[in-house]
Model the fold of this input.
Amino acid sequence: MLVVDHLAVAAASLDEGVAAVEAALGVTLAGGGSHAHMGTHNRLLGLGDLYLEVIAVDPRAVAPAWPRWFDLDRFAGVPRLTNWVARCDDIGAEVAMGPAGVGVPVRLARGDYRWQMAVPTNGILPFDGCFPALIQWAGDLHPARALPDAGARLIRLTLRHPRGDALRDSLARRMCDDRIAVETGPLALHAAFRTARGERAL
Done:
């Protein structure tokens, strides 16, 4: 089974993304780090059982010889929710059951954290990013447990895609989470949160 692990807000620059999320949700993001393998860096927000990351290309890093995750090589425009990540206990099995293009497991690290993540060869996840990136953490360390509690919680993640029925079927066999809603329509990802300042959205 898949479990919602975290949400990804992409940005042209990390500072721009952090400012946008903090303004939208009325919270303060915590620290993050760099991903040398992908040439990206992030900042994080704890959401109780999961977390949110603002992620951007790191201008100080060496550009990888392969496409970056979350299609960041082609990102443009204002910061926005572009992807989500689901964790599992057997990433090889989940990749085998997943839709075409879900990716190949890659071993990664940031600080003390170790994980495998399925990264598409072209950087673009199935259903134009509405299907989750798959992750398997090594050991008991997980960012959500280490982040300060900003008092925000995910209420609902809405995934809208022209092939919504196919996306719903693909997820229904693997995930049971009332917070995930799939709709048919123009491509969009939308997240609603409960915060100390009321309901907010990205």
